[in-house]
Design goal:
By secondary structure, the chain is mostly helical. It has 20 helices and 12 strands. The structure holds one RNA strand.
RNA sequence: GAUCCCAUCGUCUAGCCCGGUCAGGACACUGGCCUUUCACGCCGGCGACACGGGUUCAAAUCCCGUUGGGAUCGCCA
């Protein structure tokens, strides 16, 4: 029987989740959920300088928002330091790693030199040749040291889940550090130990770490562990076609949440970033994505983050929502922006939601789309200006006032009858009737259905507006 | 410089493994329909196999090369 799939999401808590990481997390989560597997949540906080508690909270919040859950963790690497140190000692005993006394400055200088000479920068092996006595002497003298892994293999083959077989030439790979002098492990070391000990079977991650995968494979071997299955996902490009960068606009998950994107849309969009479903339909429910996702259908080439399409997709999800759901979403933003919103009766508020729904792709756009219900715009459009000074306009408005006098309360279904009466009284119909009414009431030539405008504005407000 | 990855409409992609369909879909753009306006929706249009060789009756698909883009080479992750 196949071993149960166990994946992990292991961000470093150095800020809010980036969409690229979110996509990676999603793919891992998907293969776990579709196979009754497990998800481990681990925080790679070995970089003391950049890690923060706030970041951890914001990551959890983002994950919850998207609907990712985990079965194990969160683990903090900073709490497992003893483990890494112990493993480093074991490797030293087996001869897989050795103490390196070179200082950061020396190494930096050497590296620059190698670059200048056009050579591949790699460790020159200075400390490999130290005798036991020399090592002991330096340790006694208190010279700080790191542990370096001795690369003996000439090449490594990786069978990548998305890229197939890859052969790495290790001739130019120098011995690399696994433990820093301060006792903290380097990424390559702690991931391997944690992934192995936590029983991770599949690792889907960005292709930016593809080049360090052979190092990790060597570490697995040296430590006596079986390596998991790796799958390297392509990078995500920004609108310029270059890797997505902060200057391209929003890149953190939280910024999308704050901009009014709904999690279903984000989830769907992220899934399509490199993966494509079998059929023609791209709007997919979470359950559909879970059941149909396959790592085999993941693209090898980079995907560009298409903000336009995300927005469209968000609109698709918004349009599918009930009026009540839309009302819940727009209430905070509209009550803040328009003082009149809160005092509206519930059925009027719902009418606003109904009117706004098909016209927005982003909840934030409801401010603009609902404006008509709270403010009359100045008539600026040339054609509107022209119409509003016509004889038709005066006649329609006068008739409208007359008809309105017979009403006290306006119900949603009254609009038809009212306009019918205005038509009879004014003798105007079609555009001359409806467009003039619209302009008189809203100041604009386009916007929500008159039905909703009549209902939400009510008699008094309409009278006020047409007299302006 | 070295190692590795990638290459189909403007963008994301299907098709490639097992050569033969007008190279299919989505966003964007655009024409029309629906609608008392706009929006939504529906129907259509525009638009791509990076280049060069080879194999073959036939190549987006198989092979070789070229070019272009990207990642990495760290005591960051």
């Amino acid at each position: 029987m196949e071993k149960k799939i166990r994946v992990r999401f292991a961000p470093s808590p150095t800020g809010s989740i980036h969409v690229g990481n979110a996509r990676t997390a999603l793919f891992n989560w998907l293969i776990a959920r579709q196979s009754n597997g497990e998800m481990v949540f681990r925080l790679e906080d070995t970089d003391v300088e950049r890690s923060s508690l706030e970041s951890i909270e914001s990551i959890k919040k983002d994950m919850n928002w998207l609907g990712f859950d985990w079965d194990d963790g969160p683990y903090l690497q900073s709490e497992r330091l003893e483990l890494y140190r112990q493993k480093a000692k074991e490797l030293e005993e087996s001869g897989a790693v050795y103490k390196c006394f070179c200082s950061a400055e020396e190494l930096e200088a050497k590296r620059e030199n190698q670059m200048k000479e056009g050579k591949t920068p790699m460790y020159d092996g200075t400390c490999t040749h130290l005798t036991k006595e020399e090592v002991q002497a330096k340790v006694d003298a208190g010279v700080p040291f790191s542990y370096r892994f001795k690369v003996t293999e000439k090449s490594i083959t990786l069978n990548d889940l998305v890229r197939g077989e890859i052969l790495f030439d290790l001739k130019e790979t120098g011995d690399f550090v696994v433990m820093r002098p301060n006792g903290y492990p380097v990424y390559n070391f702690s991931v391997v130990i944690d992934d192995a000990l936590m029983g991770i079977t599949h690792i889907l991650r960005g292709e930016d770490i593809l080049p360090s995968t052979p190092k990790q494979i060597m570490l697995y071997k040296a430590l006596g562990f079986d390596a998991p299955q790796f799958g390297h996902l392509s990078m995500i490009n920004g609108p310029t076609g270059r890797p997505l960068h902060k200057r391209d606009g929003a890149t953190s998950l939280s910024s999308f949440r704050e901009a009014g994107y709904v999690p279903e849309a984000m989830f769907n969009f992220l899934a399509l970033l490199g993966w494509s479903p079998k059929g023609d339909n791209e709007i997919l429910e979470k359950e559909d994505i879970i059941s149909s996702f396959s790592i085999k259908d993941v693209s090898k080439s980079p995907a560009q983050f298409n903000y336009e399409k995300l927005k469209w997709m968000n609109g698709q999800y918004l349009h599918k929502k009930s009026d009540e759901e839309i009302l819940d979403l727009i209430t905070p933003i509209l009550s803040e922006r328009y003082s009149g919103f809160s005092s509206l009766a519930d059925d009027r508020k719902l009418a606003v939601a109904k009117a706004v729904k098909p016209r927005v792709e982003l909840i934030s756009e409801s401010v603009e789309q609902a404006r008509v219900f709270f403010e009359k715009a100045e008539i600026t459009e040339a054609e509107a200006v022209e119409m509003s000074s016509s004889e038709d306009y005066r006649v329609v408005v006068d008739s409208f006032k007359t008809v309105l006098a017979n009403y006290s309360e306006i119900r949603l279904e009254d609009q038809k009858a009212i306009t019918k009466e205005v038509q009879k009284l004014s003798g105007r119909k079609g555009k001359a009737l409806f467009m003039n009414l619209r302009i008189a009431l809203t100041g604009e030539m386009h916007g929500a259905d008159l039905e909703y405008i009549f209902f939400v504005l009510g008699k008094d407000e309409m009278l006020k507006r047409v007299s302006q």
